[in-house]
Every structure is written in structure tokens, then in C-alpha cells.
Amino acid sequence: MITFDAQEFLRIGAAIYDRRDQIESMADAAVARGFDNIVLCSVGGSQAMMDPFATIIRRLSSVPVVQVLAPLYTTGGHPEVTSRSLVIMASKSGDTTETVAAAKALQKLGAPIFSVVGVDGSPLQALSDWCFVYGDGRPQELVLYLFVGALLHRLGSFEAYPRFADQLRNLPAALVDVRQTFDARAIDYCERFNADPYNIWVASGELWPVAYAYAMCVLEESLWLRTKSVMSSEFFHGTLELVERDTCVTLLVGEGATRPLDLRVKDFIERYTDNAVVIDMADFALAGFDAEFRWMLGPVVANAALQRISKNMEHINQHPLETRRYYRKVAY
Amino acid sequence: MITFDAQEFLRIGAAIYDRRDQIESMADAAVARGFDNIVLCSVGGSQAMMDPFATIIRRLSSVPVVQVLAPLYTTGGHPEVTSRSLVIMASKSGDTTETVAAAKALQKLGAPIFSVVGVDGSPLQALSDWCFVYGDGRPQELVLYLFVGALLHRLGSFEAYPRFADQLRNLPAALVDVRQTFDARAIDYCERFNADPYNIWVASGELWPVAYAYAMCVLEESLWLRTKSVMSSEFFHGTLELVERDTCVTLLVGEGATRPLDLRVKDFIERYTDNAVVIDMADFALAGFDAEFRWMLGPVVANAALQRISKNMEHINQHPLETRRYYRKVAY
């Protein structure tokens, strides 16, 4: 397998999981302070990393959730974001301009901020009430499974959280297995579609932000491949008409409540294009997890599988994932 | 001008405006019944027609708004949608499968429904507490400017509503002028980009749903042209890397709070592609409207301008807007 080190994945997974106590203490502190709603506020790939948790919180509790992109908050505000909101923010660098600007406005408002940041000593950390610096730990979502899970548990929802949190110890190994299982399919995908003029990506519910961000932040930004991403529920209201026998349509099928919407797309694309690619989360083993938790893991499972497409595409197209035309190269 | 009849546009505009009393009575009845939040629930182009009103309500009041696609509601529910929600739904045919299914679930829940429907005697009408049937009246949004405006006014927000509602009498003529003003640019657009392999569409705030739906429901569904639509605030987090000197990027610039985000995209695309198309709502006259109301009209102004692209593209590409491969032709 190209660009793959199983031991390293286990190490960087444990690097987060081993600090479970620290994350749960931050959740305790947030609950102790009290809040009326949870606000997910960042931008780009970091927002998309958090957005599945809106679906998860809504399924597991009645705590209201507001999703607001940082630059939209900064320019227009949001009436449901108040000093009684618990704001969750994320930024790999911790210095994303739009997110830092929103954090400043939120701090001024008096809303407490919990942030998930890759780099120690960042501006976002300085603006946060609680900040978890994951460094080279991965996946970032593991921080939120623990923080959000503990939060809901303390509030009397998600009774099964302690069992889920114990099983999260198995996540790094489960994701290594996903990568190994999916690699042959990823290579086949890259060989078939690496020169396609355009790819359609479809998903729903907790997997929609994954498809959206993979298309935008990896295929477009890192591999310069053209995409259209569309929700399973919206696919039948326009985009379907573009499907011809040679159109590449990639579908992520989740195990959550919206699975029937994904399966409807599956039936359609398997009938009308020879280039339908269906990645079904139900096909992965996820050893060490009870069935009831599988749907929540969809985002990290999908990302682990898709990472194999990124790594193989980088190799096949001889296009380094780090090459940029504009990002951090020119001012805008 | 191809496929254009100014008198007919004035007639179908008045066909809605002349029933202003009826719409405001429905708003009175909804307020009399009482509600804790407003829920916008439909699918596809109809959802996108309603979504700008989430932004409008949030700017003008503190009434909480929930946007939930009908099929997502039906499969997964939403904890903030209760019998104390006022649900607004829309469907041109009134028989959109996903919307009717959600309306049934919402009726069972006991949530009152106000619907905006094109066809008299539809299933959605039968499930609604209040239904406005617009028939051949256009634009549909005029119903919501009046309904939502009256609603907020009755609740003590949007003090200027009576003046805005009076000025809405001028909307049909203002939109005829938009079409006439924009037609030459629309023809130029179609001649330059009708054979492009791919078009990027960008907008934000109250105009984002317009760009999203125009790309999906017109360019993709009706003209079989490939698109990527992306919010102005998200453009810099991936899609920008696809911009080359010959990439067509079309930007809608609004007059609302998020205008600075649009202008940032404008600066970028005007520097890095020769095919930047900027449609600025501030360039249209909108005679008969006070400046403070202009931003709210952005969605109908943009749609009137874009309709000239549709009509000219239909002619230039000899592709009738009604032709479908799948929609209502095969079962799925």
C-alpha cells in the first residue's frame, strides 16, 4: 500500500484517545457553566468535520444545534447565538482568518468556546475557554465523539456513552482495517476516473459533510479535479439529468436514519451509468463496536476509505496533495 | 427579446399581489394560533425558493427558524420541529412525493402548515391549514414576502412592513426592467459559455439558495450543463484552486450583510480568470423601492436576470427547457 503506515495510524489514534479524561473534564466544565444550545462555527473543511455532529446531537438529544459558518456569523450575526450558547470551533492551524474573527466576536458576546486545534499556541486557542490541541493526533473527530458524547451524557441523553467511549479505544485499529480493505477499490477508482472531466459525489445525513468536504478540500483543492457534490435527497431534483452511461457518480451510503435516501440513489445510478461507485459503510467490519454505534462512525469510516483514493490518486496523477495555485501563496 | 412578454409578467405579478389581503389574513390566523419557531420544509427548487427567508427572518427578528429538507425530516425527524412549530412548505405541483410525505408526518405531529402551491386541489393543499394557490402567478416569492413580512410585523418585528408591502405593488414592473436591462449580458453569457464543460457558481446569504438552485434545477436539470455551486464564504476553502484563465465563474453579489464575502470573491476571480461574470444586484434600478428593502429583493431580482440566461441558452443551444431524461419519465 502506497503512503501507508499502520503503526503510525495506531499511534496517532492513541495520541488522542489516551487523553480521554482531559476531553471529558472539558465537557464537565462546559456543562457546569450551562448553555441553552450548541453552536458549530468554523469554515471550510473544519466546519464540515464538525457538521456531522449536528445530526448526531439531534438524533441523540433535544439540545438545539445551530450551524453557522464563521464568515456568515461575522458579517450577519445569528439571533440564536447568545452568551448562553456553547460554541464549538475547529481549525487545523488555529489561525484561519474567518474562524479567528468569529471567535473574537463570540468572546465579546460572552459565549464560551470549546475548540479543536492542531497547533499549540494558536490565536484560536487564546480565544477559547477550553481548547484541545491534537497535534499530530488523528482523526480529529475522535475529540468530538468524546466531547459531544460526554456532554450529552452529562445532560441525561445518550445513556450508552460510557460503553461507546470505551469502544472508541478500538477506533484507530478499525480505521486501519478500513484503509486496508478499501485500498484495492481505491486503486481501481483512480485508474478508471483519474482523467475524468467531472465527478458527481452524493451522500446524506451525517455523511453529507464528508462528501461535500472531500469533493471541495481534497479533489478540488489538493488534486485539481472538478466535482459536483449533492445531497442524496436533492439528487433527484436536478443533478440526475446529467447522468449518462459514462458519468462517474460516487455515492457514500450511510448506516443512519437517511440510509433509505442513499439506497434510492444507488438504485438509480446502478441502472443509468456504468460508472456508479457505491461505498457502503455497512461493508466495513468495525471490530470492537456494537452495531448501535456504527452509524455515528460513518464520517471517520468514510474519510479513512476516501483517504486511500487521495493517496493513490496523488501517485497515479503525479500530483502532490500539497501543491496549491493560490492558498497561502497569494493574498486574497 | 426572445420568449419575453412584459404585459404577461405584469399580469402574473398582479395576480398574486391583488390577493395581498388574503395572504395577510392567513398570517393573522397563524399568529393567532401561536408558534415557537418557523420551519421551512420542502425539497429541491421549492426548498431553495424558501431558504432565503431563513436569512430574512433572522435579520429582521429573533424568531427561531429551522430549515429541514422534507426527506430528511421524514427519515430522521428533527427535535426542534414540534406541534408548536409553524411550518411553511412549497411545491409547484403540490404533489412532490417527499414534500407530501413530510406534510403527512407534520400533520400527525399537530404542527400547522402554511403552503405555497401552484396547482389547485393538490395533496399538499389538502394537508395544509392554510394554502395559497398561485396558479400562473409569479414570482412565488411574492407570496412569502407578504406572508412572512406580515407574520413578523404582527409579532412586533419588521416595523416597516406596511411600507414594504405597499411597495411590493411595484415588484412586477421592477422585475420586467431587470429582465430588459440584463438581456444583452445574458446573450453575451450564453454565446461565450454555452459549450463550456463546467461552470462554477458562487453566492452568499440570501442569494446562496438562488445560485444553488439555478445551477441544479436550471443548468443541470433543464439545460444539461455541468455545474459546481459554492458559497462565497466557502469558495476560498477549496474550489478556488480550480480557477484557471479560462474557467467560467459566475458570481451573484448581494446587497445584504454578506456582501463583503461576495466582493472578496469578485476581487479574486477578476484577477485570475478571463471568464469571471459578476452579477451585482446593486446595478439594477428597482424603481419604487426604498433602499433599505433592496437586499431582501435580491433573490427575485437574481432569478429575473438569470431567467434571461435560461431563455437565451434554450434558444442558442436548441435545448428545450422542458426536455428531461428521467424526471417524470421513468420511475425511481
Of all chain pairs, the largest interface belongs to:
A-B, 62 and 62 residues
So, the CATH homologous superfamily of the largest domain in chain A? Glucose-6-phosphate isomerase like protein, domain 1
Computed Rg of chain A:
20 Å
The CATH topology of the largest domain in chain A: Rossmann fold
Order of helices and strands of chain A: HHEHHEHEHEHEHHHEHEHEHEH
* Helical stretch tally of chain A: 14
Largest sheet report of chain A? 5 strands, parallel
Basic shape of chain A: globular
Q: What is the number of beta strands of chain A? A: 9
CATH level 1 class label of the largest domain in chain A = Alpha Beta
| CATH structural architecture of the largest domain in chain A | 3-Layer(aba) Sandwich
Q: Count structural domains of chain A.
A: 2
SSE class of chain A: alpha/beta
Q: Which residue ranges of chain A are poorly predicted, with pLDDT under 50 across at least 5 consecutive positions?
A: none
Assess the beta-strand content of chain A as a share of residues.
Answer: 5-15%
User: How much is the average pLDDT of chain A?
Assistant: 98
